[in-house]
Amino acid sequence: MPRVIDTDERNRRVTEAAWRVLVREGIPALSVRKVAAEAGLPPSSLRYTFPTQASLRIRAYDMVVERLADRVASIAPGADWARAVLLELLPLDESRRLEMEITVVLGTAAMADGALRATHRTAHQAVRDLCERVVRALEVAPEDVRVETERLHAMVDGLALHMIRQGESEGTDWAVSVVDTHLANLERSPSPQAPALG
Question: Does 103 lie in the same domain as 33?
Fold first, then answer.
């Protein structure tokens, strides 16, 4: 008798199958039939939850954001919190590399896909919000929060893109070193001074 799969587990399986198809074959290959085969499920079992390619693309992108949020939520507060958050944004292992590859594929597709554009904006904003939380946690001067957030966001996105473009066998220590240097510079930023009494 086949094992009964609950809805959450099935949806996770389907989404991970969609990720593999996207990375291996690209957007044009993402069909309900192909994803069902990759997940080892009959296509009919997907048609209600994922009736279209658009619904598969949106769910695949949403799961990247959800996994990132879950990992960040599990980071204990403390002196290393900011660094730990930034490292979660980088493809330092196989699963985060896959997530970043999906982000690039779907983020590029969103430029011409109105249905995916809102999901892309949500993902982009989620990363920016994490960068702002890091900047605020480091007690950067209030007037510098916006510009430092944008600088950090651009740096993290750039690092992640470079990392997935390099060979998988190449190291990632260089990227961690860039993050550490940037954090050290932010921590050395002068704190706002109280006005002198005259």
Answer: no
Into how many domains does the chain fold? 2
Q: How many Å apart are CA 175 and CA 166, to the nearest integer? A: 12
Give, in order, the Cα–Cα distances in Å from 135 to each of 110, 145, 150, 160, 174.
28, 6, 10, 19, 22
SS3 label, residue 89: coil
pLDDT recorded at residue 1: 42
17 and 59 Cβ atoms separated by less than 8 Å: no
- Our CA angle for 39, 66, 33, nearest 5°, is 20
d(CA 140, CA 135): 6
Question: Mind listing the pLDDT tens digit for each residue in 129-188?
Answer: 999 999 999 999 999 999 999 999 999 999 999 999 987 778 899 999 999 999 999 887
| CA distances, 44 to each of 4, 17, 35, 41, 49 (Å) | 15, 16, 12, 8, 10
Check whether 112 has a pLDDT greater than 80: yes
**Global pTM value:** 0.84
On whether residue 71 sits in a domain, the answer given is yes
Which amino acid, residue 187? E
| The last residue of a domain, from among 51, 72, 87 | 51
Predicted confidence (pLDDT) per residue in 119-132, tens digit: 999 999 999 999 99
Residue-wise DSSP of 5-41: --HHHHHHHHHHHHHHHHHHH-GGG--HHHHHHHHTS
